[in-house]
Amino acid sequence: MDISKIYQNFALSFTPPEDLVWHSVREKPFALYGATYSEEEGFYRRLPKAVADATNKGVAYLSKNSAGVRVRFMTDSPYIAIHVDERFEEPFSHMTICGKFGVSLFANGEFVKTVMPSYRQIVAGDTSLGGSGTISFDGLLSPYGVEGMYLAEIFFPLYSIVKNLVVGLKAGATIAQPPRYTHERPVLFYGSSITQGGCASKPGDDYINRLSRMLDTDYINLGFSGSARGERVIAEYIAEQNPSVFVLDYDHNAPNAEHLQNTHFALYETVREKHPETPIILMTMPTIAGHENRLWHASRRAVILETFERAKALGDKNIYFVDCYGAFGEQVQGECGTVDNCHPNSLGFLRMAEAIYPLLHNLLNGEK
Q: By the 8 A CB rule, do 150 and 73 touch?
């Protein structure tokens, strides 16, 4: 039996209202953050192709994933329909379909609902089964208890290549430019799969998106699963940006402590040379409390602390250290902060955001 016939909240498709009008989010007054749309390639990307290709194969591919991409707009439409076309990929075994493929809608900063593909919609894109190569899905969402104009925010998939996303609103509804972020200069995050958002239950749950909503700040997500290794080319690209704060968080992706030793201070130095006064936050990987005492973890943590201490000894007054060892909380049986004792679930990401929030709040508000 189709469960949606007995419980409509589990339905994965919708019948479009007769008064629905579709709009491209690539046109004004919609405001796109976190990516550009490549007309030549036909999808959104987070990093220029030349930079991505020159860094490593992982970054070349993952820069096409839409982690951190958002669309914001004001409307008074009583409903928002969303249609998405994504390049086919197999689902992950350790991450929800919603987190990998889905989109989340927030209204006035409050979570409304998600739209995600069904099993059949995913299979219909599988070229090995005669599929089209594209996963297409849609849904109709209605913000609860919202009247008049409201800020709508759509958070893109964390691990998917989005070819197209369009929004459907009631005919005659107002669409207007969204308010600017309180902090318009973005915070730049560079790091691992955790930075990218693996394995949040849904888009918007990762620690960076949470911090963005908590602080009302724009941001840039340069998280690349298994591929953030602090190479010179990506260091120089990061140094060319002009964020309000740099967050360097690639502890997890350095193959070993020796690699971290060879690249970590060099990355800091490259950024600091171009930005003498911009705050730089050095982060360690998030873990369960006590993991900092394990030799493998301790050796890496020591490298990051060494960068921090060297920078301070050189007179850097805008270098900061956030120790995320223990951020997931105390070890308990069936630990609930991660999916695999590495990648956070949504609870783990909330704990990470709470650990970083005080310092980032102070830096963004000029309170050192």
A: no
Q: What angle separates helix 232-240 from helix 257-274, to the nearest 10 degrees?
A: 30
Percent of the chain with pLDDT over 70: 94
Helix, strand, coil shares of the chain as percentages rounded to 5?
Answer: 30, 25, 45
Neighbours of 89 (CB within 10 A): 16
Amino acid present at 261 = Q
Architecture of domain 183-364: 3-Layer(aba) Sandwich (3.40)
Instruction: Please give the CATH number for the structural domain made up of 11-34+69-176.
Output: 2.60.120.260
Hey, where are the domains in the chain?
11-34+69-176, 183-364
User: How far is C-alpha 285 from the geometric centre of its chain's CA atoms?
Assistant: 16
Distance between CA atoms of 85 and 43, rounded to whole angstroms?
10
| Exposure class string for 49-82: b at 16+ Cβ within 10 A, else e | eebbebbbebbbebbbbbbbbbbbbbbbbebbbb
pLDDT score recorded for residue 305: 96
Tell me whether the CATH fold assigned to 11-34+69-176 matches the one assigned to 183-364.
Answer: no
* pLDDT tens per residue across span 339-368: 888 899 999 999 999 999 999 999 999 875
Beta strand segments in 231-347, E: 245-249, 280-283, 319-322
- Cβ burial of 126 (10 Å; 0-12, 13-18, 19+) is middle
Q: In angstroms, rounded to a whole number, what is the distance separating the alpha carbons of residues 327 and 343?
A: 12
Q: Annotate 216-230 with DSSP letters as a single string.
A: TEEEEEEE-TTT---
Q: Facing residues of 217 across strands? A: 183
State whether residue 338 is helix, strand or coil: strand
- Asked whether the whole model's pTM tops 0.85, one would answer yes
